[in-house]
Amino acid sequence: METAMQRPPVARTLGLTKSFAAREAITGVDLSIPPGVAFGLLGPNGAGKTTLIRCLLGLLRPTSGSVELMGHCMPQENAAALARVGAVVEEPRFYDHLSGRDNLRVVAALLDESAPQRIPSVLERVGLTDRALDRVGSYSLGMKQRLGIARCLLNDPLLLVLDEPMNGLDPAGIQEFRILVRRLVGEGRSVLISSHLLDEIEKTCDVVGIIDRGRLVRQSTLRELRHTSQNQVRVGCDDAAAARKVMQQLSWVSAIGADDSGQLIVTLAADATAASLNRALVSAGVGVSLLQAAEVTLEERFLDLTTRLQSSEVRA
Amino acid sequence: MNRLAAMINAEFLVLRTRRGLMALTAVLTVGGIVLANLVLSLYHLSNAGQYGPAGGAHGLANATTLFEVTGSLAAILVGATAGAQQFESGVFRSLVATGRSRFAIALSRIPAALMVILPMLLVAYGVEIGAVYLFAGGTALPSTTTVLVELGWIMAVGVLDCCLALGIAALTGTRAGAVGLLVAWEVAGSRLIERFSAFGSWRGLISTVATDRLLPNATDTIQLTRADSITLSVGAALAVVAAWILVASTLGVWRTVTRDA
């Protein structure tokens, strides 16, 4: 992961702003997508995710700021930049009267000469070989999502941009999608997934960017995002009340809380360790079943970041 | 095969697989000619003294009038579909996201649409020529020159209407809007404007006036009303038709290149 973070980004924006009339859909976004990772672009509905993606792909002209895609300036070097990029923006759209295979033929005609030869293999990869000759109008939304990914793969992309790709997928479909994304990342490709589904992003992605009201409020690895700045330990034990009594006597325990499952969240002094806490509890006869560095969930951090932004705007 | 040819083929594939459009186009062109000849033949059979034979030079002149309506409508439908289908289906965004030039994407629609409408008009005209000779009933036959000029006129009107519809549909992004606008223009708008004598010889710039001038038996003087006419040479009429095609196509290409995807 660190190696990937050090290589040049596959996509980068600097001060990217896009306005529609008087309304700024995105404001001063500085985004950097490292190569070889699944990057989750998280944000509530209307946060500006799709506008950001459309600017990245040169589908919209930014009001100000710059976009660099695969090392090329957008939109000036549009063709070179997009040659190895596959994208599904918003819901995947097709000619309903054409078969899945013919829809791919239409797009392949615009790509390099090897693209039409990839049609059978990409259909196989997304599990649509059996339905390739059926009209797309008869496809379910999940099948259209898969066909959209097949369309993305036609140019053997180094970066896939998938906007809300899990919409309309059933649980099995979501799991298949997750496996597919991890495989693509395993092949050295980068995948940008925009979504408001925190759980799926948490399970699928390595790096996350959180966008809210058009501003990128945080970008980091999931590990960094979950990590708390405080020295906190999650403690599971056989007698929580006894454990509390023991810990209240310890000068280096500054706070004791609990989560929904009844586990204790203990804040230690900066120089204290979990091992010291374990020793103290066991010595006092408290059976310790879990001792783990406390992390916040993506949901907690997401709500924290987006709520913080709202509060600061209200104050302003 | 170069990329543009592949893109044209892809657009042609999208158009020719629209069964409804193809059926309607066939009905308007080939079907119209077959039906007209059938009805005129039945009239002739029922009362040969009052109704002449369906074929011959007179039959070809009747067919021209029919082509002007049904052939134009078919060309408008095909052109409007070709111009708007990428936008209405939402596929345009995916095509642009490939990085291929928008200019090439826009340009590939024109030959693809013509590859649909022109063969259809050609078949319909072939059927009509067969009927002209088959149902001549001893009346005068058209000369080879007339047959060829008539063919050229039908094709020119087909290209003009198809390109106008395509350009307007690409400009507005809607098929229905383009069809409505052009039908209104051809049926009412242009015919109304050409009656305003205050516009003088500027009326030669109206597309329908120019195509009327290109009819096989037309002369440089075009009678617009009983008391009003303008003069237009064949060369000028061809230039007007070419200008309409160029302007409409340019507008369609411009909008495709500049619109948000």
Task: Describe the structure in your own words.
The mean pLDDT of chain A is 89. Chain A is elongated, with a radius of gyration of 24 Å. Chain A folds into two domains: 4-223, 3-Layer(aba) Sandwich (Rossmann fold), CATH 3.40.50.300; 232-294, Alpha-Beta Plaits (2-Layer Sandwich), CATH 3.30.70.100. Chain A has helices at residues 2-6, 49-56, 78-82, 100-108, 115-125, 141-153, 171-186, 198-204, 222-226, 240-248, 274-283, 298-315; strands at 11-20, 23-33, 38-42, 64-69, 72-74, 85-88, 159-163, 190-195, 207-212, 215-221, 232-237, 253-258, 264-268, 288-293. In chain A, strands 6-7-8-3-9-10 form a six-stranded mixed β-sheet, with helices on both faces. Chain A has a four-stranded antiparallel β-sheet with strand order 2-1-4-5. Chain A is an alpha/beta fold and 316 residues long. Chain B contains nine helices and two strands. In chain B, helix 5 packs antiparallel against helix 9 and helix 6 crosses helix 7. The two termini of chain B are 28 Å apart. The interface between A and B is medium-sized, with 34 and 27 residues.
